[in-house]
Design brief:
Length: 301
Protein backbone atom coordinates (compact mmCIF):
# COMPACT_ATOMS: atom_id res chain seq x y z
CA UNK A 1 0.00 0.00 0.00
CA UNK A 2 1.37 3.41 -0.97
CA UNK A 3 1.96 6.31 1.38
CA UNK A 4 -0.86 8.26 -0.34
CA UNK A 5 -3.31 5.39 0.18
CA UNK A 6 -2.48 5.20 3.89
CA UNK A 7 -2.81 9.00 4.18
CA UNK A 8 -6.29 8.74 2.67
CA UNK A 9 -7.30 6.10 5.23
CA UNK A 10 -5.93 8.23 8.08
CA UNK A 11 -7.91 11.26 6.86
CA UNK A 12 -11.09 9.19 6.77
CA UNK A 13 -10.31 7.95 10.28
CA UNK A 14 -9.92 11.52 11.56
CA UNK A 15 -13.33 12.40 10.08
CA UNK A 16 -14.75 9.30 11.81
CA UNK A 17 -13.36 10.42 15.17
CA UNK A 18 -14.96 13.85 14.79
CA UNK A 19 -18.31 12.82 13.37
CA UNK A 20 -19.00 9.28 14.56
CA UNK A 21 -17.23 9.31 17.90
CA UNK A 22 -17.57 12.99 18.76
CA UNK A 23 -14.04 13.19 20.18
CA UNK A 24 -12.65 16.54 21.30
CA UNK A 25 -10.23 18.25 18.91
CA UNK A 26 -7.20 17.72 21.18
CA UNK A 27 -8.01 13.99 21.46
CA UNK A 28 -8.39 13.77 17.69
CA UNK A 29 -5.01 15.48 17.21
CA UNK A 30 -3.35 13.03 19.61
CA UNK A 31 -4.97 9.97 17.97
CA UNK A 32 -4.05 11.23 14.51
CA UNK A 33 -0.42 11.61 15.59
CA UNK A 34 -0.40 8.11 17.04
CA UNK A 35 -1.81 6.54 13.87
CA UNK A 36 0.60 8.48 11.66
CA UNK A 37 3.42 7.07 13.78
CA UNK A 38 1.99 3.57 13.30
CA UNK A 39 1.57 4.19 9.55
CA UNK A 40 5.22 5.19 9.22
CA UNK A 41 6.22 2.04 11.09
CA UNK A 42 4.09 -0.12 8.76
CA UNK A 43 5.60 1.56 5.68
CA UNK A 44 9.14 1.05 7.01
CA UNK A 45 8.34 -2.64 7.54
CA UNK A 46 6.84 -2.82 4.03
CA UNK A 47 3.56 -4.16 5.43
CA UNK A 48 0.04 -3.84 4.01
CA UNK A 49 -2.49 -2.57 6.57
CA UNK A 50 -4.93 -5.35 5.70
CA UNK A 51 -2.17 -7.90 6.37
CA UNK A 52 -1.03 -6.55 9.75
CA UNK A 53 -0.92 -9.42 12.28
CA UNK A 54 -1.08 -9.56 16.05
CA UNK A 55 2.71 -10.08 16.14
CA UNK A 56 3.16 -6.87 14.11
CA UNK A 57 1.09 -5.03 16.71
CA UNK A 58 3.14 -6.53 19.54
CA UNK A 59 6.41 -5.52 17.82
CA UNK A 60 5.10 -1.99 17.30
CA UNK A 61 4.20 -1.68 21.01
CA UNK A 62 7.70 -2.87 21.90
CA UNK A 63 9.14 -0.39 19.38
CA UNK A 64 7.40 2.62 20.96
CA UNK A 65 7.80 1.45 24.58
CA UNK A 66 11.07 3.24 25.11
CA UNK A 67 12.40 4.49 28.46
CA UNK A 68 10.83 7.81 29.33
CA UNK A 69 7.47 7.14 27.68
CA UNK A 70 4.81 7.83 30.30
CA UNK A 71 2.37 5.03 31.07
CA UNK A 72 -0.52 7.36 30.23
CA UNK A 73 0.98 8.05 26.78
CA UNK A 74 1.40 4.33 26.09
CA UNK A 75 -2.20 3.70 27.19
CA UNK A 76 -3.42 6.38 24.81
CA UNK A 77 -1.40 4.97 21.92
CA UNK A 78 -2.91 1.53 22.54
CA UNK A 79 -6.39 3.08 22.62
CA UNK A 80 -5.57 4.87 19.36
CA UNK A 81 -4.62 1.58 17.71
CA UNK A 82 -7.73 -0.21 18.97
CA UNK A 83 -9.98 2.59 17.72
CA UNK A 84 -8.20 2.66 14.38
CA UNK A 85 -8.61 -1.06 13.72
CA UNK A 86 -12.22 -0.93 14.90
CA UNK A 87 -12.74 1.76 12.25
CA UNK A 88 -11.03 -0.39 9.57
CA UNK A 89 -13.38 -3.28 10.37
CA UNK A 90 -16.46 -1.02 10.23
CA UNK A 91 -15.32 0.27 6.85
CA UNK A 92 -14.83 -3.28 5.56
CA UNK A 93 -11.10 -2.75 4.95
CA UNK A 94 -10.08 -5.66 7.17
CA UNK A 95 -11.88 -8.71 8.54
CA UNK A 96 -9.99 -9.47 11.77
CA UNK A 97 -8.75 -7.16 14.51
CA UNK A 98 -5.03 -7.73 15.26
CA UNK A 99 -5.18 -5.51 18.37
CA UNK A 100 -7.24 -8.06 20.32
CA UNK A 101 -3.98 -9.47 21.70
CA UNK A 102 -3.27 -6.17 23.46
CA UNK A 103 -4.78 -5.78 26.89
CA UNK A 104 -6.96 -2.70 26.90
CA UNK A 105 -5.75 0.03 29.25
CA UNK A 106 -8.08 0.83 32.11
CA UNK A 107 -9.88 4.04 31.23
CA UNK A 108 -12.45 5.73 33.42
CA UNK A 109 -15.62 5.87 31.37
CA UNK A 110 -17.06 9.34 31.03
CA UNK A 111 -20.76 10.00 30.73
CA UNK A 112 -21.60 11.14 27.18
CA UNK A 113 -22.90 14.64 26.55
CA UNK A 114 -26.67 14.79 26.13
CA UNK A 115 -28.93 17.52 24.77
CA UNK A 116 -32.29 18.47 26.26
CA UNK A 117 -35.31 17.99 24.00
CA UNK A 118 -35.60 21.78 23.63
CA UNK A 119 -31.94 22.00 22.54
CA UNK A 120 -32.48 19.27 19.94
CA UNK A 121 -35.49 21.17 18.59
CA UNK A 122 -33.47 24.40 18.35
CA UNK A 123 -30.84 22.67 16.24
CA UNK A 124 -33.50 21.04 14.05
CA UNK A 125 -35.00 24.46 13.34
CA UNK A 126 -31.76 25.92 11.93
CA UNK A 127 -31.57 24.50 8.37
CA UNK A 128 -33.21 26.74 5.77
CA UNK A 129 -36.07 24.67 4.35
CA UNK A 130 -36.36 27.01 1.37
CA UNK A 131 -33.09 25.61 -0.02
CA UNK A 132 -32.47 22.05 -1.27
CA UNK A 133 -29.45 21.51 0.99
CA UNK A 134 -31.31 22.95 3.96
CA UNK A 135 -34.16 20.47 3.45
CA UNK A 136 -31.61 17.67 3.03
CA UNK A 137 -29.88 18.63 6.28
CA UNK A 138 -33.14 18.91 8.22
CA UNK A 139 -34.17 15.46 6.99
CA UNK A 140 -30.80 13.96 7.96
CA UNK A 141 -30.93 15.53 11.43
CA UNK A 142 -34.52 14.40 11.98
CA UNK A 143 -33.55 10.84 11.05
CA UNK A 144 -30.40 10.94 13.17
CA UNK A 145 -32.41 11.81 16.28
CA UNK A 146 -35.53 9.77 15.46
CA UNK A 147 -33.58 6.51 15.04
CA UNK A 148 -30.42 6.98 17.14
CA UNK A 149 -28.17 6.28 14.16
CA UNK A 150 -24.41 6.47 14.06
CA UNK A 151 -23.09 8.92 11.45
CA UNK A 152 -21.71 6.13 9.29
CA UNK A 153 -25.10 4.38 9.39
CA UNK A 154 -26.87 7.57 8.33
CA UNK A 155 -24.49 8.44 5.50
CA UNK A 156 -24.49 4.91 4.05
CA UNK A 157 -28.29 4.58 4.11
CA UNK A 158 -29.88 3.87 0.76
CA UNK A 159 -33.35 4.84 -0.40
CA UNK A 160 -34.17 1.15 -0.68
CA UNK A 161 -33.50 0.77 3.07
CA UNK A 162 -36.63 2.80 3.87
CA UNK A 163 -40.01 1.06 4.16
CA UNK A 164 -42.50 3.92 3.94
CA UNK A 165 -45.54 1.66 4.23
CA UNK A 166 -44.46 0.13 7.53
CA UNK A 167 -42.46 3.14 8.79
CA UNK A 168 -39.15 1.31 9.30
CA UNK A 169 -35.60 1.56 8.07
CA UNK A 170 -32.89 -1.08 7.81
CA UNK A 171 -29.37 -0.03 8.69
CA UNK A 172 -26.07 -1.88 8.93
CA UNK A 173 -24.06 -1.10 12.03
CA UNK A 174 -20.75 -2.30 13.43
CA UNK A 175 -19.65 -5.55 11.89
CA UNK A 176 -22.28 -5.01 9.17
CA UNK A 177 -24.90 -6.18 11.67
CA UNK A 178 -28.41 -5.49 10.37
CA UNK A 179 -31.06 -3.90 12.54
CA UNK A 180 -34.56 -2.64 11.87
CA UNK A 181 -35.61 0.66 13.46
CA UNK A 182 -39.04 2.35 13.47
CA UNK A 183 -39.13 5.89 12.06
CA UNK A 184 -41.30 8.52 13.76
CA UNK A 185 -43.93 10.38 11.72
CA UNK A 186 -42.04 13.69 11.68
CA UNK A 187 -38.84 12.17 10.27
CA UNK A 188 -40.88 10.08 7.82
CA UNK A 189 -42.68 13.20 6.54
CA UNK A 190 -39.36 14.98 5.94
CA UNK A 191 -37.97 11.89 4.22
CA UNK A 192 -40.94 11.80 1.87
CA UNK A 193 -40.51 15.49 1.03
CA UNK A 194 -36.74 15.18 0.57
CA UNK A 195 -37.03 12.22 -1.78
CA UNK A 196 -39.77 13.88 -3.83
CA UNK A 197 -38.25 17.35 -4.17
CA UNK A 198 -34.50 17.29 -3.50
CA UNK A 199 -32.71 13.99 -3.90
CA UNK A 200 -33.78 13.57 -7.52
CA UNK A 201 -32.16 16.95 -8.29
CA UNK A 202 -28.92 16.11 -6.46
CA UNK A 203 -28.55 12.67 -8.03
CA UNK A 204 -26.17 12.84 -10.99
CA UNK A 205 -26.01 9.11 -11.58
CA UNK A 206 -23.07 8.47 -9.21
CA UNK A 207 -25.00 7.90 -6.01
CA UNK A 208 -25.59 4.12 -6.22
CA UNK A 209 -28.80 4.57 -4.27
CA UNK A 210 -27.25 6.48 -1.34
CA UNK A 211 -29.93 8.55 0.40
CA UNK A 212 -28.12 11.73 1.48
CA UNK A 213 -26.13 13.32 -1.32
CA UNK A 214 -23.74 16.24 -1.60
CA UNK A 215 -24.33 18.99 -4.15
CA UNK A 216 -21.93 17.08 -6.42
CA UNK A 217 -24.27 14.10 -6.37
CA UNK A 218 -22.03 11.88 -4.25
CA UNK A 219 -22.44 10.49 -0.73
CA UNK A 220 -21.98 13.17 1.93
CA UNK A 221 -18.67 12.82 3.75
CA UNK A 222 -18.42 12.64 7.54
CA UNK A 223 -16.45 15.88 7.62
CA UNK A 224 -18.94 17.59 5.32
CA UNK A 225 -21.83 16.58 7.58
CA UNK A 226 -19.86 17.59 10.69
CA UNK A 227 -19.24 21.09 9.29
CA UNK A 228 -22.95 21.59 8.55
CA UNK A 229 -23.89 20.27 12.00
CA UNK A 230 -21.40 22.59 13.70
CA UNK A 231 -22.89 25.56 11.86
CA UNK A 232 -26.41 24.66 13.02
CA UNK A 233 -25.66 24.12 16.69
CA UNK A 234 -23.73 27.39 16.83
CA UNK A 235 -26.70 29.20 15.26
CA UNK A 236 -28.97 27.54 17.81
CA UNK A 237 -26.89 29.06 20.60
CA UNK A 238 -25.86 25.69 22.08
CA UNK A 239 -22.85 26.20 24.33
CA UNK A 240 -22.30 22.51 25.17
CA UNK A 241 -19.56 20.54 23.43
CA UNK A 242 -21.61 18.39 21.09
CA UNK A 243 -21.24 16.43 17.87
CA UNK A 244 -23.62 14.54 15.58
CA UNK A 245 -23.07 11.51 17.83
CA UNK A 246 -24.67 13.51 20.67
CA UNK A 247 -28.00 13.02 18.89
CA UNK A 248 -27.56 9.25 19.38
CA UNK A 249 -26.79 9.71 23.08
CA UNK A 250 -29.81 11.99 23.41
CA UNK A 251 -32.05 9.51 21.58
CA UNK A 252 -31.18 6.78 24.09
CA UNK A 253 -31.43 9.04 27.14
CA UNK A 254 -34.80 10.53 26.14
CA UNK A 255 -36.23 7.05 25.54
CA UNK A 256 -35.16 5.87 29.00
CA UNK A 257 -36.42 9.07 30.62
CA UNK A 258 -39.75 8.38 28.96
CA UNK A 259 -39.91 4.91 30.47
CA UNK A 260 -38.57 2.71 27.64
CA UNK A 261 -37.23 -0.71 28.58
CA UNK A 262 -33.43 -0.92 28.66
CA UNK A 263 -33.43 -4.07 26.49
CA UNK A 264 -35.49 -2.31 23.83
CA UNK A 265 -33.06 0.62 23.78
CA UNK A 266 -30.17 -1.85 23.51
CA UNK A 267 -31.81 -3.39 20.44
CA UNK A 268 -32.50 0.00 18.83
CA UNK A 269 -28.90 1.13 19.36
CA UNK A 270 -27.45 -2.16 18.14
CA UNK A 271 -25.35 -2.77 21.27
CA UNK A 272 -24.09 -6.33 21.66
CA UNK A 273 -23.55 -5.91 25.39
CA UNK A 274 -26.24 -4.37 27.57
CA UNK A 275 -23.54 -2.90 29.83
CA UNK A 276 -22.81 -0.47 26.98
CA UNK A 277 -26.43 0.68 27.08
CA UNK A 278 -26.50 0.88 30.88
CA UNK A 279 -24.29 3.97 30.84
CA UNK A 280 -27.44 5.92 29.91
CA UNK A 281 -29.19 4.82 33.11
CA UNK A 282 -26.66 6.89 35.06
CA UNK A 283 -27.64 9.92 33.03
CA UNK A 284 -31.36 9.36 33.64
CA UNK A 285 -30.74 8.97 37.39
CA UNK A 286 -29.08 12.39 37.35
CA UNK A 287 -32.12 13.71 35.48
CA UNK A 288 -34.50 12.26 38.08
CA UNK A 289 -32.44 13.85 40.86
CA UNK A 290 -32.69 17.19 39.05
CA UNK A 291 -36.48 16.86 38.75
CA UNK A 292 -36.80 16.21 42.49
CA UNK A 293 -34.42 19.07 43.30
CA UNK A 294 -36.18 21.54 41.03
CA UNK A 295 -39.83 20.66 41.57
CA UNK A 296 -40.29 18.95 44.95
CA UNK A 297 -41.03 21.42 47.78
CA UNK A 298 -38.42 19.76 50.02
CA UNK A 299 -36.05 18.67 47.27
CA UNK A 300 -33.54 21.50 47.67
CA UNK A 301 -30.74 21.04 50.16
Amino acid sequence: MSSDAIDGIVKSYVSYLAGDRGFASNTIDAYEGDIKQFSQYILSEEKEIEKVSDSDITHFIQYISKPGLAATSLSRKISSLKNFFKFLIEEGLIEEDPTLVIESPHIVRKLPAVLEVEEIEKILEQPNLETPLGLRDRTALELLYACGLRISELLFLKAENIDFNEGFLICYGKGKKERIIPIGKCALDFLTLYLAEVRCKLDKGKAEGILFLSKRGKRMSRMGFWKRFKEYYHKAGISKKVSPHTFRHSFATHLLEGGADLRVVQTLLGHNDISTTQIYTHITKDYLKKVIRDFHPRGRR
